[in-house]
Design a protein that fits this description.
Chain B: One of its GO terms (cellular component) is ATP-binding cassette (ABC) transporter complex. The complex is a heterodimer of chains A (about 230) and B (about 260). Chain A is α/β, with parallel strands linked by helices and about 230 residues long. Chain A contains nine helices and eight strands. Chain B has about 260 residues and is mainly α. Chain B is globular and about 55 Å long. The two termini of chain B are about 25 Å apart. The mean pLDDT of chain B is about 90. Classes of the chains: A alpha/beta (about 230), B mainly alpha (about 260).
């Protein structure tokens, strides 16, 4: 179970404080998949960082009773002067995984071949993304944190990603943050809308979709832009 | 928070620090030429250079002390605490994205860096002590136990100092800029170039406020034994180191609350 209890995040900003997340609550049980819809500047990236544990809420608490992945296919924690293999070893050590099993999987899945022994800085962005994706599903998490993506690599690779994630790991929990309602409709059992820092959990994906599309979200986001959009990472 | 039993937490933290340590080694030293041997070759050449220079010029600062032991103890300790602190200053910000791996905490980033510096300085110190003895340049320590204890105490101090300075440097960029100046200014007061007993009593009291001076004195007393008057307090060193360490942890808590990862 993952539980967010009154999570609020306030950043210091020029001319005062900026509330980016305002009393966010939800509970995700094992096996459930929640999709969080929100326009640009709604606070999605901040929510991701709080869930991942990089940043801490200003008030409220996040309780994790199952293991939660880092944002899927996120390659920011790579050290670019190290080889793909060095980075793989680092991940396997941090998460206590069997290195040779992990290596076999990543080797097969990413198709990087001898490039695994080259420093990451010589990788193309597609290669980097393939390694990042392979690594994040090579660790057996209970719950995957997904920030948009899945549009990694070519058509064939995308198909394999979808297969690995939604079919082979269909029993896992997921937190899918997106501004694309179709993706959430396709994969999630629960849905919520994040707008201007407020999260509304809906009874059904359709209701969330209606709420998200029904109201003039883009205009609202633009109107609130002054106090919600300047957060880092957006 | 989901409570993890202490033993499991300890196992996780050990694993994480080991992973960061290996990552740091490869990042810093790479796989070219002598690779990670630079870890201790670098501090060794520094101490060796100074010891050699003093040995040749016979500059004993106007006092009669065995110059090789004097240089070895002085420079090795100053390298230990200074490098630990300097490596930690501003050490978190470029590594913030590592925190996306939930088990990696800010303290682990610092501890891994400190561990690396300690490993380098320690290898360098003991290797040189052996080399100097084998080549007949220095005597064996009079009190080996005290030498080891003094080194461990200085390691503890360096850890506390590193965590403290590293944490505080995340609060304000100014600390990072000022720290480099401070280390230069502190060098004459590091205990590398004097024995406390050579100083007038008033200066003695002042210089003994600096915890690392106690470490050098104790280390030298272990090497040179009786026949000199030593001034150091183990209790003072332990107190100051613990204070720095705890204060550093507290500041780090605050830093982690304020951290903004890009």
């Amino acid at each position: 179970m993952i539980q967010l209890d009154g999570v609020t995040k306030i950043y210091p900003a020029r001319g005062g404080r900026k509330v980016v997340l305002d009393d966010v609550n939800f509970v995700l049980e094992r096996g459930q998949k929640i999709g969080i819809l929100g326009p640009n500047g709604a606070g999605k990236s901040t929510l991701i960082r709080l869930l991942a544990g990089v940043e801490q809420p200003t008030s409220g608490a996040i309780r994790r009773h199952m293991s939660l992945s880092w944002p899927l296919a996120f390659g920011g924690a790579f050290q670019s002067s190290l080889t793909g293999l060095d980075n793989l070893r680092f991940i396997s050590r941090v998460y206590g995984c069997d290195e040779s099993k992990m290596r076999a999987f990543v080797d097969e899945f990413s198709g990087l071949g001898r490039y695994l022994r080259e420093p990451i800085k010589v990788y193309s962005s597609g290669m980097r993304a393939r390694l990042a994706f392979a690594l994040s599903i090579a660790v057996e998490f209970d719950c995957f944190l997904i920030d948009e993506v899945i549009a990694v690599g070519d058509q064939q690779f995308q198909e394999r990603c979808r297969e690995e994630l939604f079919v082979k790991r269909g029993d896992r929990s997921m937190i899918l943050v997106s501004h694309d309602p179709n993706l959430i409709r396709q994969h999630c059992t629960l849905a919520a809308v994040l707008n201007a820092g407020k999260l509304t959990v809906c009874d059904s994906v359709d209701e969330a979709w209606a709420r998200y599309c029904g109201q003039p979200v883009k205009e609202t986001a633009a109107g609130d832009g002054a106090d919600t959009t300047t957060q880092p990472g957006e | 928070m989901f409570a993890t039993p202490f033993r499991d937490s300890l196992a996780i933290q050990t694993r994480v620090i080991a992973a960061l340590f290996m990552r740091e080694i490869i990042t810093r030293f790479g796989r070219h030429n002598i690779g990670f041997l630079w870890l201790f070759v670098e501090p060794m050449t520094f101490t060796l250079g100074i010891a050699g220079l003093w040995y040749i010029t016979r500059s004993t600062h106007g006092h009669h002390v065995p110059i090789v032991e004097f240089a070895l103890t002085g420079y090795s300790t100053v390298l230990l605490w200074r490098n630990c602190a300097t490596r930690c200053v501003g050490g978190l910000t470029p590594n913030l994205s590592l925190l996306f791996h939930r088990n990696v905490k800010p303290i682990d980033v610092f501890l891994a860096r400190i561990l690396l510096e300690v490993a380098g300085a320690t290898c360098s110190f003991y290797l040189l002590a052996i080399v100097f003895h084998v080549t007949g340049l220095s005597e064996l320590p009079q009190h080996a136990g005290r030498v080891i204890a003094a080194w461990l105490l200085t390691t503890y101090l360096s850890t506390g100092l590193g965590v403290f300075v590293g944490a505080v440097s995340e609060l304000s960029e100014m600390v990072e800029r000022v720290w480099h100046t401070v280390t230069y200014l502190l060098f004459p007061f590091s205990g590398a170039v004097f024995m406390v007993d050579w100083l007038p009593p008033a200066a003695r009291d002042a210089v003994l406020l600096l915890p690392w001076v106690h470490g050098v004195e104790m280390l030298r007393s272990g090497f040179l034994g009786e026949g000199y008057t030593w001034h150091y307090s183990v209790a003072y060193m332990v107190t100051v180191s613990s204070f720095l360490f705890l204060a550093g942890l507290l500041v780090l808590r605050l830093v982690h609350r304020r951290v903004e990862a890009g």
